[in-house]
Amino acid sequence: MSETPRATRSFYERLLKQGFSRDEIAEVHRRLREKGYGEAPSEGVLRRELSSVRRARTVDRRGQGGADAAPPPAVGRRAEDRFPVIPPALRRRINAYARSLQLPIVGPREWLDDLLSFLPLRVPDCVAKRYVERLTRQHGLEGFGAGELSLYDTVHALSYAAQKLMGDLLPPERPVSAGRRARPDGELSETEQVKADLQRRDPFGYRVLQEFVGPFEQVKKHLEYLRVRQDNGERVETAALSEVAQAVYRLCLKTEQVDSQSAGATLSLAHEIQTAYRRSAAYAEELDEAARMFRIARDNLQRYKFELYPVILRLLKSDYPWRPQDPELIERLCALLGVADEDILERRRYDQRQEQLQQEQRRAIEQRELERLEREKSSQFRESYAPVLRLLGSMFPGSGIGQLDQGAFVLPYFERVLFRDSGRFASVEPGLTSLAAEDPLATIIPLHRIIDDWLHSLNPYRLERLLGSEAISAALVAIRDEWQAVYPELFDLYLRDVAAFAREISGPADRAREFRRSRSAYVLQREIETLRTRLLRRTERSGPVRDRQDRIVLPMLAERLHNELIGIGRHVSLATLRRDDPVARRQVRILVDEPLIDYELYTDPRSYEYKPATRQLRRYIEARKQQPIAETGAYASLFPLDTVRSVCDLYRFLLRDPESFLMVSGSRLETAGPFEQAAWEEAENDSRDPGATLRIEFAEELSAQYRDQLTGLRDKNFFLERMPELYKRLRSDGKPITVLMFDIDHFKWINDHLGHQFGDKLLTAMGELVNANSRPADWTIRYGGEEILILIADDLNAGVVLAERLRYQQEQRIESNSDYEAVRRLASDGGAPCGTLSVGVAACGDLSEITAAVERTDAVLYAAKAQRNTVAVLPRETPEPLPYEEYRNQRLSASGVSGPQVAGGEPADDKGAPRHGLRNGGSDEPDRGADSTPQSSSGEAAAGGRGTPAAAPAETPEEERASRNRSSDRSSDRPGDSQ
């Protein structure tokens, strides 16, 4: 141990005697270092900081126990801080009991101390010198045998062997040679692969090994302290053993229920996995030695548990007899040491707890999905912003950004695929990957970066010359600078705090619980909430527009940009191309000569000014106009102006409107779970895979063989030829299976009264609606006539959410779209819904054949058709189908949690699959408007893959929203629109 100056040591001891704990002193030191005081702040500075800590502690104590609460008792050094004072009579009984068991903790001198304790003298409660030597002796791990092992050697051997078996101590990888392939960036190292394999194949055994790794460092410093005291000739008081005893008992309580057979299976599996990576006899012998060492040390730990029992009795303030299997004793020890029932590891109970946890999390997810669906139905977000969402979905295919309001997790796509070459968040990468899908920043960051790219691609000085106003360029430049300052002033700080929170709760459950109850967690959550207030304008926390310490408030910045773009749009927009006046002709000539965006500079990946979002914008324009960007004239400058204005309007709404889904979901602090991790891995693989485009093109070619020409869905031949095999594969993989069947209410009325051509138009619109709301992994089939079948590899609740979303969107379209006025008259004349959907949903994972699944779902569909325009659900636990409203009420009332935290824990569902509406919503193809043009077959826009946009709707989002607002009867709507 390093020597500490006597003056510093005495000052530290005085602080301890004054009542400050070691944790408080360490926390004050950390804060002073962050303020720049260095490693050794002066005594005066340290005293001032500690005085504030004492005042805060006094206020907290008075708030909890009243103003007359008793002052804290005087405390001593180290372990004595929390060691109870026991009467001499109890001390003598415990020592007599220890001597009767022949425990080495007491010797002749301790017996004499007990006799002297009868006198009115303060006789210290010490332990035998030979016992301290027995605990602290260090032989090392060389020549490890089953002889007299010290406690230090025992805990050290357990920690070393557990790390060895988990793969933490793999030898370093061999250097890359001429004949050996270098490991690609982002690929897991051998150590990470070994740990991931062991955790996947035996999560219980991996958890057991983890428990043996941590305590060594804690026990080591206490044992070294005891050794130093003994070497200095000082006697060791029993209180100094309290931390050691608690650490040993806590470890034993957690792991002693693990039977030898289960532990042996874990050791064998770890040996098998590691030898698969390191095929050498020498390393296999090292693993065998580690397994032998683990078994010996684990058995030896029980001996020290018995010898430390007198210390535990002092902590319990009783002389309870040694009965290691007594439930009463175990209960008292768990209460003393803070070991919860879920911390005790036993395979059967562990499996039961995992199953119970997954059920609770599934119920929480169901509740959240249903609540989100109800908010979606009650709000007008999708109706108002459908054009801009459709545009973004077409411009960034495969990202899911068109389903933002349905909970699509788009952050991995944009950070790993679109912006993969940008190091914007390199310094806060752990925080980025720790964001949950429900976190507001997971939506804010992609939209902010898209607008950032487009804003920096616009030339404000050319816009100034175009409009003849210097104020426009000055305002845009100022906003652009602040837009970039958001990253270090808001995003980076938020991501650092989230990473710190995720790091603390990612450890064992007991430590995570302890952290959540700590003041550090409270302070961290307050800091995150403060940053969220600057990211989202909440009505209850609106406050001033700018705080003296908050230079940038994001909603205010978005409002300023939106106002500037609106002002520009009054003078120049896509409508300028349709105007026939001298001012418009002059503006078009200027834009042809001096475009507002230098596409060659900003869309070349080799350029220093490369902007990936601008490149996608160029691809979109070229695909829509069917010509290179240089030949599109003024359109290449005016279309980005209208587009950035529309996206900025969406961004502003999400940040400011109280009805925004970000406002509703942005109050809970969550961290990434298995679903988010799988999404990051998928995006990482897609960005590195050179064959992804080829696979996509092949999949499109294969699906075209079974494509129904009218609806765009798969046809009946696909169901007959491919679905039986796919259904059996899903069942063999153990995935849940849900089947939906729906048809159009009174479709025969439409064909008989309005003609088959109108009926075909309605079926085409239905196909677009299904494609817009289903995922690429779902199988959507035109089963026959107006009947459509959807099979999803997900649980029943995901199918119910999809079914109700389809039914509601079709109902809204029939009620509000002027093209369906004739259908509404048919419904009124017939006295029954017409053109709406009746949907049956059934869980079919227990059925062995696809035909049986269709028969079950068809029966549920008939129950829905008895009511019309409704969803009928058949859960496994009910014999008869339920209406959607009854199913929803049952699920919401049965969920015992309100606003649960489902991320950051165990798997969010039984197979970790994305869920409808809450997860990766999307369709097989980007949404195409009714009069969209085919995609170019040549050039960059026809290259295929994720970066290739499809054709666009005929109107821009700004124009379509304007036409919707101008027309009360929505005459601009078309049957092919999704909304």
Written description of the protein model:
This protein is mainly alpha-helical. The chain contains 41 helices and six strands. The protein has a six-stranded mixed beta sheet with strand order 2-3-1-4-5-6. A hairpin with a 2-residue loop joins β2 (779-784) and β3 (787-792). α7 (151-166) packs antiparallel against α10 (215-231) and α35 crosses α36. The radius of gyration is 34 Å and the shape is globular. Residues 1-5, 63-79, 176-181, 539-550, 688-701 and 896-979 have low confidence and may be disordered.
Give the terminus-to-terminus CA distance: 72 Å
Helix fraction? 55-70%
The whole-angstrom Rg is 34 Å
* Form type: globular
Largest sheet, spatial ordering of strands: 2-3-1-4-5-6
What share of residues are in beta strands?
under 5%
Number of helices, where a helix is a run of at least 4 consecutive DSSP H or I residues? 41
Overall pLDDT score: 78
Q: Major sheet, described briefly?
A: 6 strands, mixed
Indicate the low-confidence ranges by residue numbers.
1-5, 63-79, 176-181, 539-550, 688-701, 896-979
- Using DSSP, what is the number of strands? 6
Structural class comes to mainly alpha
